[in-house]
Amino acid sequence: VNRNGPIAQFVEQTKVNLAPRGYGRSSYRFAEIVQVGRIPVYMFNDFSWAAYEGTPAAITEFGFHSQLGDAVRLVEGIQAVVKNDTELNRRFQKVKEVRQLYTYGGLIQQIELFFADPLGPSGGYLRCAKVPDSENRKRAIL
Questions:
Q1: Strand residues in 4-120 grouped as ranges (E)
Q2: For the segment 91-105, what is each residue's pLDDT rounded down to a tens digit?
Q3: What is the distance between the alpha carbons of residues 137 and 38, in angstroms, rounded to a whole number?
Q4: How far apart are CA 142 and CA 136, in angstroms?
Q5: Contact 19, 30 (CB under 8 A)
Q6: Facing residues of 39 across strands?
Q7: pLDDT, tens only, 22-64
Q8: What pTM value is reported for the model?
Q9: Which of 86, 102, 74, 97 is closest to 16 using CA atoms?
Q10: Residue 133: which residues within 8 A CB-CB, separation 6 or more?
Q11: Rounded to whole angstroms, how far apart are CA atoms 40 and 33?
C-alpha cells in the first residue's frame, strides 16, 4: 500500500472502511484497509471468502462482514462498536496484530507453514474449504 497516496490518506482519517467484494470473491481493498491499520467492512452477496476464517486472524476478530441483504444489522453493529471506545480500541489493536498476515510476505509465510504441517497445529492460519455451490457456478456447469 502506498501510505502517501490520496486513498491511503483518506482511509487513515476514518475508523471503519467499506471493502465490498469486487469481480472476484474478495477485493484488494480489504487487505489495503488492514495494512493501513483500519477496520474493514467486508460485504458479499452469497458466501464469505474472507481470509483466515476460524482463526485468530479472521475478520470476525477485528472487523465486520455481512451479506449484502443484511445491511441494517451490519450498520447497527458498526454503530455500536464506534460508540464503545473499549471495543473500538480492541479492534484497532487486533488489526495491528494481524496486518502482516494481509501482506504478500505474510501470505507467503502462511503458505510455507501450511505446506510444512497441512493439518497440524503448526500449519499456520490457512484453511481448505469446499467451493460452495452458487447460482453462477450451477449455470456454468449446465
A1: 16-20, 39-44, 64-67
A2: 999 999 999 999 999
A3: 33
A4: 10
A5: yes
A6: 16
A7: 777 777 888 989 998 999 999 887 778 888 988 999 999 999 9
A8: 0.80
A9: 74
A10: none
A11: 6
Cell digits for 98? 494481524
Q: Which residues contact 136 (CB under 8 A, 6 or more apart)?
A: none
Tell me phi and psi for residue 66, to 5 degrees. -160, 155
By C-alpha distance, which of 68, 69, 80, 70 is closest to 39? 80
20: which 3 cell numbers? Answer: 465490498
Q: Look at residue 111 and tell me whether its pLDDT is greater than 80.
A: yes
What b/e sequence results for 128-142 when a residue is b if at least 16 CB atoms lie within 10 Å of its CB, and e otherwise? eeeeeeeeeeeeeee
Handedness of CA 66, 71, 77, 82 (dihedral sign): positive
The confidence score (pLDDT) of residue 48 equals 81
Beta bridge partners of 20: 43
| Residue partners of 92: CB distance under 8 A and separation at least 6 | 37, 39
Give the span between the Cα atoms of 34 and 98, in whole angstroms: 8
Are residues 53 and 76 in contact, defined by beta-carbon separation less than 8 angstroms? no
Q: Are 112 and 50 in contact (CB under 8 A)?
A: no
Give 65's strand partners. 42
